[in-house]
Amino acid sequence: MNLVKRCVYGxxxxxxxxxxxxxxxEKKEEAAGTAQEAKATDSVSIVKTVYGETxxxxxxxxxxxxxxxGMEVNIITYGGIITSLKVPNKxxxxxxxxxxxxxxEQYQKANPYFGALIGRFGNRIAKGKFTLxxxxxxLAINNExxxxxxxxxxxxxVVWTAEEAKGGDTASLKLKYVxxxxxxxxxxxxxxxxxxTLNKDNALDVLYEATTDKKTVVNLTxxxxxxxxxxxxxxxxxxxxxxxxxxxxxxDATLIPTGKLTxxxxxxxxxRKPKAVGKEINAADDQLKKGLGYDHCWVLNNQGKGDxxxxxxxxxxxxxxxxxxxxxxxxxxxxxxxxxGTLPMRNGGTYAHRTGFCLETQHYPDSxxxxxxxxxxxxxxxxxxxxxxxxxxxx
Length: 395
Ligand code: GLA
Description:
Elements: H1 2-7, H2 13-19, H3 28-35, E1 44-53, E2 59-67, E3 72-76, E4 82-88, E5 94-96, H4 104-108, E6 116-118, E7 124-125, E8 129-132, E9 135-138, E10 147-148, E11 161-166, E12 170-179, E13 190-199, E14 203-212, E15 216-217, E16 221-223, E17 240-243, E18 245-249, E19 262-263, E20 275-276, H5 277-280, H6 286-291, E21 295-300, E22 308-315, E23 320-326, E24 330-334, E25 358-362, E26 377-378, E27 384-394
Antiparallel strand pairs: 1-2, 2-3, 3-4, 4-5, 6-16, 7-10, 8-9, 11-12, 12-13, 13-14, 14-27, 15-26, 17-20, 17-22, 18-19, 18-21, 21-24, 22-23, 23-27, 24-25
The chain binds alpha-D-galactopyranose (GLA).
The site of alpha-D-galactopyranose has 11 residues, from strand 24 and strand 25.
C-alpha cells in the first residue's frame, strides 16, 4: 500500500492498473495484486485505497464500488463524501455525474458540502436555537442568522470509520461516526451509521441509522450535486425535474420556513409533471426571489407509506435518468444558486452558477422549532432509520 500512499492520492488502484499511469518504475505488480481483490466474477466489487491524510494527520481511505453495468461510486471516509459517481449515457458511455474535487486538501477547505453526508441536522435551524424538554440549546450561526447543516464542524467534516460488506449482487460500505454529547451544540451522544450500497442495476442505496443516549434532534441527508450531462461547464437548467409533491414549505428571507405549507398549483414549484429547471426559475415569484432560484423543501406526497419514488431528473442529451426513492417526508431541491465560479473543477475551470443540483431527502428545515411539522426528535431507546435510493438508467 506504500505505493498508493507515496504517489497516487486521488487515483484508484483500479485506474492505476487500467490507465498504466503515474509512479513510473514503481511496483505496479503490487497494485495489480491488490486490484484482484475485486474478483472479476463479482457483479459488484468494492476496493479500498488510501486517499490522503487530513491536516490533523488522520488517514483517509477511499472505497470504489463498481458494478458490471458501468456504474462506479467513490466514497471517502472524510465526511462520507461521494467524490465521484459515474453512470452510462444512452450510448453506454460511463461518465462523471457529480460535482467533486480532485484532492482531499480541497475538500477540507470551505465548500458548499460537495457530495457530503449532512448531520446532525440537515438544513437550517432558525437563529441556531431550539428547545427540548424546556432546555434551550444554542448552535453556531454559520449561515447568518441561522445554523446550517449541522454546524461548521458537522458530519461533512468528520472522519468516519468504515466496514465493507459484499452481498450476492451488492457491495456495501458501512460508515460509522459517534457524535459526542453537545458536539456542535446538540445534546446526546449520537451513534450514526450510514451504509452506501451499490447494486448490480445501477442503484445506490443510502441507509441512515442512529441512536442516542439523550433526547436530541436528527435530520440526516446526502449533499451530492448532480449534473447528468457530465459537462460541468454547463448549467443544469435543461434537466427535467419531477417532484411528487402537491405542497411546498415556503420560506422567509433567511430561508427559514414560515410554518405554512402552500399549494404548488400554478406556481413555478409545480414539478408534478416533468419540467425543465430553467423554464420558470427566473419567473417573478416571491419564493424564487428568496431562494435565488430553487432552494426549497417540498412536502412529498404519500407520507408514511414507506419507500416510494419521490423525484426524478432527466437529461435528454445524455439520456440519463435519475430516480430518487425515499421514506422521508420532504426533499430539498437546490438548483446550485450559490455556485459562483470560485471552486475548482477536477480538470481545470471552475464550477459556475447552477452547474449542479441537489435532491436532499429529509425532514423539513427548522423542524425543531415548528410544532406542526413531523417531528425530528430522537429519544433514547428509539432507532432512527431511513433509506434513500438514487437509481440511474437511460431513456
Ligand atoms: C442547501 C441549502 C442551500 C445551501 C446549500 C449549500 O441545499 O438549502 O441554501 O446552503 O445547501 O450551499
